[in-house]
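Quick check before the chapter quiz. The format below is the same one you will see on the exam, so make sure you can read both the input and the output lines.
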Amino acid sequence: MQYAKSDFWEFQIQANILLFIPVGFLLSMVMNRAKFLPIIIGTLFSVAIEIIQLLTHRGTFEIDDMISNFFGVLIGCIIFLPIRMLMQMDEENKKLQSNIH
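Here is the expected output.
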């Protein structure tokens, strides 16, 4: 019985992380120049969800969900980093080419 509970919580943590990776990625994409703002906004979004669950009695308010969601947002932001670097390199190349012509 204990093993089944452990599997359930492990799945919950993994699901929360996976569900918030796109949030971090998309916030980073929209706020291309901001470094920490996507992480802050993604975390506040997670907190808002948990507070809504607490106030509406739909789901349960759990700190571990917010922690898992934070890591999902963080991973999404980290995944976007190489894309941001490529975008910046492309902008620099365009500036150099426009200066040459």
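If your answer matched, good. The radius of gyration is 19 Å.
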